[in-house]
Amino acid sequence: MIKNEQRPLNFEKCPESDDELKKRLEIEKLINKNIDKNISFDVLVKLSLAPYGLVNDDFRRILWPQLAGVDINHLGQAPTLDKFQCHPEYNQVVLDVNRSLKRFPPGIPYEQRIALQDQLTVLILRVIQKYPNLRYYQGYHDVAVTFLLVVGEEIAFAIMEQLSTTHFSECMQETMEATQRRLMFIWPIIKFENPELYQFLQNSTVGTLFSLPWYLTWFGHSLTSYRTVVRLYDYFLASPIYTSIFVTAAILLYRSDEILKEDCDMASIPEDLPFEDLLKTSSSLLNKYSLTLIEKDVEELICQERRKRKTDEALIVKRRQPATSNRIPIITKWLPNILTAKPVILTTAISIVVGVCAYYYNNQYLAAGIS
C-alpha cells in the first residue's frame, strides 16, 4: 500500500521569526490566563489554522488534546506489550514499527528508542483491539508516532482513538474501496479551478494512487521535515474530516505548470513548498466548494467510467465474434467427405479433424489473449 523506503525525519530547528515570536507570546498569554490551561475552542481553531499554527511542541502538548476533544484527566493506564502478542495484527504492526526508526529523533539513546517502539506498538494495538470493526493499515503508524513524540503514550492513545473513529474511520474499513472513492474528490476541485490541468491528468490516466500516502498519514509519511509535519497536524486537527483532500488539491494546483510540462514526480512532495500559502489555498477551497457539490461531480465521473468500461467490453466481444462464426463452415464442409469413407479411415479422419480443430481454436484464442 505504502512504499517502505522512507527518508529520515529532519528535526532541525529553524530560527524564530518576528511573526512567529509574536504568535508564541500570544498563545503563551492565553494558556497562562487559565489555571487549567484551556483555551476557548473557537480561539484554538483560529490559532491552529493561522500561520505558524501552535508554534512549538510545548504548546501542542497542552493544546492538541483540546483540539481532539480528549479529557486528559480521565486517561487509562497502558497495558504491557505482552498482552497483545496473540493479536492477529501483532506481527504486521511490529514489522511496520521497526521500519519507522527514521521517524525518531536522531541520536536518541538505544534504550529510549526501544521503549518508544514498544509504546507505539501498544498504542496501535490498543485502538484496534478496542474497536474490532477497525482494520489496521500501513501508514497508521506514521500518524501514531507523530502524536507519541509530541504528547506521550497515554494522550497519544486517546487522540488516536478519537481520530480512528472519525477522521480515519474510512481508511480503517475492511477494504480500501471507500478511501479510493474519497480520493476521487480531488478531481472536481481541480476541474473547477484549472480545467486544463484536470483534462491533462485525466488523459494521462495518472489516477489518485500517488496521493494515497498523503491521505492515509496526513502527509506524515511523505515529508522529511518534522516542523512541517506537526504544522500540518495543527491544521488538520482544527479542520473538517476530509481537509487533507483539499490540501492535496492545493498542492496540485500550485505545481500545475510543472505537471503540465510532464516534469513532475506526482508522488513526491518538494520540501520547499510554501506550506503556509498552500494551507490558505486549502481553506479557501474548503469554503468555496461543498462536499455535496463535489460528491455529485464524483458520481458523474464514476458513471462515465462505467459507461466507458461497458463500451470497451462490447467492442472486445464484437471483435471476437466474426472469428468464431467463420470456423463453423470449415467443419461442415469437411464432414460429408469424411462420412463416405470406410470405417477405419472414418475413425482416423475424425480424430485428425478433431485434433486440427483443437489446435486451430487454441491458436486463435491465444492470439486473442484468452487462456
UniProtKB/TrEMBL annotation:
Recorded GO CC terms: endoplasmic reticulum
InterPro entries, alphabetized: Rab-GAP-TBC_dom, Rab-GAP_TBC_sf, TBC20/Gyp8-like
TM helices/strands, residue ranges: 235-254, 343-361
The organism's place on the tree of life at top rank: Eukaryota
UniProt KW keywords: GTPase activation, Membrane, Transmembrane, Transmembrane helix
Any single Pfam family the record assigns to this protein: RabGAP-TBC
Gene3D superfamilies, alphabetized: 1.10.8.1310, Ypt/Rab-GAP domain of gyp1p, domain 3
Gene Ontology biological process: vesicle-mediated transport
Keyword Transmembrane on entry: yes
Transmembrane among keywords: yes
Residue ranges of domain Rab-GAP TBC in the record: 54-240
Signal peptide start and end residues: none
One function term, GO molecular function aspect: GTPase activator activity
Protein name: Uncharacterized protein, isoform D
Name of the gene: CG40289
